[in-house]
Write a structure and sequence with these properties.
Length: 198
């Protein structure tokens, strides 16, 4: 029996029950290249990011939202490095996560990148809940993105997120990518993460 995008799941094996949306969330590389984004679901994901916690409610997360077919999408896609440049162009949307690392007066926002990470985590969970998939990437040319979009010095691109509808592993153009897509999921055991657990 061949796998379809609808039947291809990669639920996590957890040491205690967690929310199904969290257990089922994973980061695919295969997206349906012909399907436009569900705008309601995209807005919901961005709203989830907006309502993420941040230090002193500073809300330093900013986003460049680039839909496939737009000049912005082409600009972000051209900044991707390595394998990311092979598969991410099939996503419906590429979102650059930008941290506002200093406020308008130039005072550093020490936790800006951490807060951006929380916002993107919220975005990914909401997107998965709504039937979309997300893959976050660090392999991109941040300086090129800053230059192309005219970002101020206090706005630092940190990550690019591919978002869209899951496709089958067979849709990927490269055998190495297909193998990664179907490889077993793995995490370090919880016991190894707990430095103190009294």
């Amino acid at each position: 029996m061949s796998m379809t995008a609808e039947t291809f799941t990669r639920g996590a094996e957890t040491s205690a029950p967690i929310l199904p949306t969290l257990a089922e969330r994973w980061s695919p590389r295969s997206f349906v290249a012909t399907e436009a984004i569900d705008e309601t679901a995209l807005t919901a994901a961005l709203e989830a990011a907006r309502w993420a916690p941040s230090a002193a409610n500073s809300q330093p997360a900013r986003f460049i939202v680039a839909r496939r077919g737009s000049a912005a999408f082409d600009t972000v896609a051209s900044s991707l490095m390595g394998f990311n440049s092979v598969w991410a162009g099939s996503a419906a949307v590429l979102i650059v996560g930008v941290a506002e690392v200093a406020d308008a007066e130039g005072k550093p926002r020490r936790w800006a990148e951490y807060d951006l990470g929380q916002a993107l985590a919220h975005l990914s969970v909401q997107a998965h809940h709504d039937g979309l998939h997300v893959h976050q990437m660090g392999g991109f040319d941040a300086a090129a993105v800053s230059s192309a979009f005219g970002l101020a010095e206090n706005l630092v691109p940190v990550t690019v997120t591919a978002l869209g509808t899951l496709d089958t592993p067979e849709a990927l153009p490269d055998e190495t990518l297909r193998a990664r897509e179907t490889a077993p999921r793995a995490r370090v055991p919880l016991s190894e993460l707990l430095l103190v657990n009294e």
